[in-house]
Structure formats: structure tokens, C-alpha cells
Amino acid sequence: MQTFHAQDAVELAVVRRSGFVESRHIGSAILLNADGSPRISYGDIDTPIFPRSALKPFQTIASMNAGAELQGAQIALASGSHTGSFEHMKVAQSILAEAGLDDSALQCPSVLPSDQPSLNALIQAGKGAQRLAFNCSGKHSAFLWACVKNGWDVDRYLDPEHPLQQRVLETIRQCTQEDISTVGVDGCGAPLPALSLRALARGYSLLGAGIENIHADARVATVATAMVDYPEYLQGVDTPYTRLSVLLDGVVKGGAEGVLAIGLRDGSSLCIKILDGSHRALVVIALSILEQAGLITAQQRAQGIEQCTSPIMGAGTVVGAVEPGAALQQEV
Predict the structure, then answer these.
(1) Three-state SS for 326?
(2) pTM > 0.90: yes or no
(3) Which string of DSSP letters, residue by residue, matches 142-198?
(4) CB 12 within 8 Å of CB 29
(5) CA 178 to each of CA 62, 186, 201, 221, 260: distance values in angstroms, whole numbers, following the listed order
(6) pLDDT tens for residues 182-204?
């Protein structure tokens, strides 16, 4: 399998402290037009990467096509990487209950919530790590409901050869229009196909165009619309990607190791991979590219940076910021 190399990426962002460039983030990015043609691209957009949780909407589509009758917030949670709040855990539990199961059926790791109020309450109650608090528990619950509906083995639902996972891989292939040559293991234990950024962007164009679109594929439209209608279940209340989803009124999904995927209602899409795996610069890069393309205004870009990013601090004072890198500056 081909893998990314530093020489295949470009400088997409820098961290400037006190006027001095302290760090640089290199990577690749692609913005697709609604017709699938590249509008803007940087670096290598054709070597496969692991999109990680940016694949969740397509996994949700597969689970629903296989019989999981998810609705509303359940769809968004299955497609999201949540913070493990009590509300998030409650929704995941509701999916399991529909399947006649409880959290003991989940094969994702047990963790403490990253949602601080829920973490505090859990500790005060003398309770420890929970499978329901893991950021993929919604996806796993949907997997299990689909298995129960079909009479498939729930003990090996993460096996790449399992009937459900075979359907997931085929759904991803269909939505992204790219054959899958490599399948790894995600952090939650689920099969993890590798895709090019170009292919991932094709999938997010499909999702973006499906938002509230009666002419789109019904399942794609249902998942995309739920992600826009219930953004707080994709990550958490007032979290960066939730705010970005509201600002763009589109499908926004992050993936571990520096991946961000965006689908807009006009069918355009933007996918970014940062080579060092950091998420710190993703929002700045995304907003900069979207402004360059005329898809958002300078005011929206400034609003997004204020709402979705943190400045560089020194003893409680702002002393710098994450800024577009050399590659993006050349386009301005």
C-alpha cells in the first residue's frame, strides 16, 4: 500500500507566537465542485489515508440499510464522535434497547467521558469507565441493532468478514466511488478502510447535496439531514466541530489523526489531512480554503475562527494565532 510522505504534502498552516513562526503543519487538502471536479487542491490527494471517524456517516447508512431503524438524534450520534455526556450515553443506550441489548454487548473500549460535567457526576457517583462513554458507542450500537434485525452473530460484529462489515465496506465503496485495497483496525476496533482524499471528498459531496433534498438517495438524505439538525450529537454542545457545522449549515465530521471532512448543501466538499495528526489547524485551514473559493465570506471566516479555535496564549494574554501556511497564502 502507498503511504503519505512529507514530500507529498505542503505547508497548510503555521503557529505564530510573538511574531515568530513556532510550528508548521503540513498536509493535503481538496475542495470538490458539485460536479466532482477539483476546484482547489494541495499536496497528494490520491494516496490512500485512513479517514478514521470521517467514515461514520457511511457506516450509519450501511447500518440503516441493513435494518437499524435509527431516527433523529440516534442517526447523528451513530455518525458522530461524541464527548460521552449523559445525554449522549442515553441516546446510545436507546439504540441498544431497540435491539434488546445492553451496553455489555458493545465491543468498543470503556472510557471516562470527555464531557466535564458528566465526568464529574460519574466520579461523584463512584462509577468508573463506561463503554457507552466511548466516542464511537453510537456507531457500535447501530451495528448491533442491524445485526439483531438480520439474525447475524453479535459476538463477532467487528470481524471484517462479518456480513454487516462487508455491507459497510460496499457502502463506502459506492458512496466514494473508489475500490478499497487496504482495511485496518480503527481505535474502536471496527474495520477501517483506507481511501484517497479525493474519494472521501466525493462521499462528502454526496452527503452535502443530500441535506433536505427530496431528490437525493433517501438514506443519504436522512443521515445528512440528521447530522445538520442534531449537530450537538456529532461531537458535543459548544465544541469546535459542532459550532463549525452550525456556521456552515453543512455536514462536518472530524477524524482522528488530523482529518476533517465537510459537505455543503450545494454539493461541494472539502477534505483535509494533516500529516502530523494534529487537529489544531484544521478549522483555520478549512475556513481559509472555503473563503478562497467564495463559499463563505471573510466575515464568516473571522466568525468561525473566533468561535471554533483558540488563540496562542502567554500568561493569559493573546500572543499569537494559527494562520494559513505558505501554500494557502499563495492563493490569497
Answers:
(1) helix
(2) yes
(3) HHHHHHHHHT--STTTT-TTSHHHHHHHHHHHHHHT-----EEE-TTSSEEE-B-HH
(4) yes
(5) 16, 19, 11, 21, 19
(6) 999 999 999 999 999 999 999 99
